[in-house]
Amino acid sequence: MSHNKLRCIILDDEIPSLKFLKILLDQVENVEIVKVFNDPLAVVREYKELEFDFCILDIEMPQLTGFDLAEILQDYPIIFATAYKQYASEAFNINAVDYITKPISLQRLKQAVDKVRIQVSKSVVSEQPYAQFNTDKGKALIHFDRVLFIRNSDVDSRDKVFFFDDDTDVMVKNISFGGLLAILPASGFIRINKREIISLRIVKFFNSEEIVTTLKDQLDKPLVLGLSETYRKTFMELITAGG
């Protein structure tokens, strides 16, 4: 399921900067601005209700910085746009797609959007059957056909626990669900709630609220996982596309 237009939200607490960014983005082909924000707290309140592919964030703002927001929006590709060069290394540490310094040029903005487009298209078409990850036991090569589901770590939500078909599991360090979905085969894996991505092959029954899986819980009963409203539509589309 791909749409040609990339949908984005933009945030800058300074209105002139925001207006200028909007004017520039309107000149970038195949980009649709879903919503413009000048208050980071409004983004936190509203982003779950919006359908968008990436965000452009200012960094220095009162109440919440762009980095604080990036933690909350960690499943979306992020471009930082700021007047300050000194944040660049920090931006890339948190997996920003790009970092643009103001005053922004149209050419530079187009480059950044192209990077987002590559990342988003990777999540639609992933060729590799495996990938290398940093785990709590060192580097590991994980074959996707062995992965049943992936869950946020209870200790640190930046870490993810992979559960395999031989009843083993491994902790993958410091990766977002967005980063994972960009690597995992798009036809086989889907996010179902804030905490979990599943392989479609474990789906036995489902309704609009929950998924009964082929796996067993600690009491040897079928493992039931929640399907949240945010991810329901995509889940249903993928299931029906698969037959």
Automatic annotation (TrEMBL):
Matching PROSITE patterns: RESPONSE_REGULATORY (PS50110)
One GO molecular function term of this record is:
transcription cis-regulatory region binding
Domain (Response regulatory): residue spans on this chain: 7-117
Q: Which InterPro entries has this protein been placed in?
A: CheY-like_superfamily, LytTR_DNA-bd_dom, Sig_transdc_resp-reg_receiver, WalR-like
On this chain, the residues bearing 4-aspartylphosphate are D58
Recorded hits in SMART domains, A to Z, give: LytTR (SM00850), REC (SM00448)
Question: Which Gene3D superfamilies does the record associate with it?
Answer: 3.40.50.2300, LytTr DNA-binding domain
Quote the protein name from its UniProt record: Response regulatory domain-containing protein
Organism of provenance:
Sphingobacterium paucimobilis HER1398
